[in-house]
Amino acid sequence: MADGGADKYIEDFLFELTKTSIDMSKPLWDVHILNLSEPTSQGAMAVTIVRFHHSIGDGMSLMSFFLSLTRKASDPNTPPSLPVLFRKPAKRQSKMMLAWWFMSFIWNTLVDVLTILATAFFLVDTPNPLKGPEDAGKNPRRIMMRCLSMDDVKLVKDVSKTTINDVVMGATEAALTRYLNRRYGEENKIRKNGNDDNLPKNLRVRGAILFNVRVLPGFQPMDTIMEKRSGAKWGNRVGHVLYPLKVKLHDDNPLEYVYKANAVMNRKKASLGSYFSYYFGNFIINTFGIKLASLPTNTSFWFSNMPGPQEEITMFGYPVAYVGCSCYGQPMALFIHAITYADKLNFVISVDEHTISDPQQLCDDLEQSFELIKTAAMAKRCRAKQQ
Question: In a 3-state reduction of DSSP, which class is residue 239?
Fold first, then answer.
């Protein structure tokens, strides 16, 4: 095994794989099985890497297909439970409140549509250490993963009274802010400790968050997906919303990142912006061709968050230690995926090393930022118990 152990060996293998493209004269997928001489950090002695061309389907389609090939580890004859999206029951509202909600919905949609159009044509993020050049998609990628405990994520969720998605997005914003603060300090050659604020003023940093726009939300059985008029059709049915980072340090109360994520995402859900971005993209493809259609390239990064298997699973009789997904070839220097598996939350980052030369540090920032958020949540829970 190469220096750095099994994880580094897999990382280097993926880096070399991203230098190649899929042969378009053959089926648009390939499989690579790596038998290891020592376990990975998550205990796997072998890793299966499946590479798909994105024209085959989006993450929801491919994850549904993957789940159809697996079984529960506790019962080899039973398919795994499909992740379920929980929605709070609607409260009875007065006519005045319904009218206010409707007006807010229309306003949010209008603002999102105009922002998406502006971003598509001229509204560009401020140059920053996360934003790569327009040809970033041509470069090979470093694909790395870090694992968090779902029990810890749920603890933060319960204390903050938000959602798991809010916690994930809050930890991501905290990590990116931490990373940017360090990079700006290094660029300015400022010798300060990590708590000092090196962030420029009026910094525009946004992420494109991918949204599933199918009629049926969440994962569906494969027989439902393959039905001719299914509301969960196979394919690429992904819109996006624009998530603005405040790029502000909250060392005094890291939970502010989670609260801010909750406020932003609640507003984005009360909007048709993601659906507009999907249909607008289809219009561009049908009118001008696929080369002119892409997710926004004027933002600083892309982000995708997807639930995975709820319990430990097996695939063809082999236990699955972890699940991860990522992309390469996109015109962004940074793509972050978050995916759950049983009691784990895996962050997978895909970076262009020409822009982000220290991806290991960015992974460390994800872990450390979440630890700070968890510590703040535990402190808040202790104070609540004492009162």
Answer: strand
